Protein 1
Amino acid sequence: MKKIFTLTEEDLKNIETIKRKYGLKTDVAAVRYALTDCAENMEVGNQEVQIVEEVASLLATEKIIQNSVRAVEKNTNVLLDVVNTILFNYKIDVCVPRDAIKSPVISTAEEKYKDNIAHKKQRKDYRVNK
């Protein structure tokens, strides 16, 4: 296909520079090289944008996980302090492992926890599939 273009003096200087720098023999070869190089740079730029977006997403996820771990740690320490206080107040010095004899309260709490997790998963799946 043949096209006619009007180029400025600056454009012609750039074409000559490309020809000399890359050892190209014709103006057409220099223009093709410049177009190909430009297209490749745009593709690399798009890939770089995707990588930056992925890293930002990973960092956001890491921050959420860190905050969750801190909350769990805090709640665990508070509960341990509460249980320790109850043990001292009632002068309880016997340890009954949960695995040996499970209190009905513990069983109920575990069941409610499972139900709560299942409910949250259903709501999340519903939002995703909506």
Note: The radius of gyration is 34 Å.
Protein 2
Amino acid sequence: MPASARALRDALITCTGADVAVVIADLYGRPDRRGAICISIGSAGMAPLRITEHDGKRQEETLTDMITCTAGIIFGQRGRGAPVVVLREVSYEASDAGVAAMLHHAPAHEGSGPDRRVQRTNGTHLPSKPPAARTSPAA
């Protein structure tokens, strides 16, 4: 049975009492280059997208993918490293939208409840309200 980010998060909160976010990573090989990169295939507790602005330019960043790339340096490829990586002091918006919210063709049934923080608009995902900044707890 595949791991569920939400189930892992719920179990970690139950066992530790810590309010954590969970991101599940996998490797993705691009046809136009050698090697593989890490991408997020599941998330719970954090919005997968982050909006930044610089010099008046607005950019959507795939935050959960950036987190998996950072963790990938530690956990390695093909199961040669640590199976779990803990990153602390990461600022994020709390959300249970999941990584499906950042897909161009997000399934309509996913994240339609009150916990959804990202809405689909003309093929672009925009926050439905200003993000509440959050920082992962330091242990």
Note: DSSP finds two helices and eight strands in the chain.
Protein 3
Amino acid sequence: MGLPTNNAKTNLELDQGLLSQQELDSKISKYKTKDELAQKVLSAKTPQDYKGLIDSSYTDESLLELLDSDKSRTTILMSTRLSPSDYAKLKFILDSKDIELKGFMANLINKEYENIKA
């Protein structure tokens, strides 16, 4: 029986597990940013704190994940003015679906968000 084949050189050439310094720096930067956001989410106490955090960082992909895992009981109040005809249409939709505005908006937001992210 012969000696086993030495595949070290071939395995080294095919190794995709090592990161370049630039890739490593990019990953470190990403995790530092996520850690900073996590600290901000954990320190947020009031709706104004959350609103400020979201307004300044809503484009960061990890923010939504952090907010979902935070399970905060607070909500953010938003107000808008509707024309009388739009209000009548909205009232009709809510009554015909037997749903509250909050549930209707949450469903619509999730649907639109998924369409944009797809």
Note: The chain is about 70% helix and 0% strand.
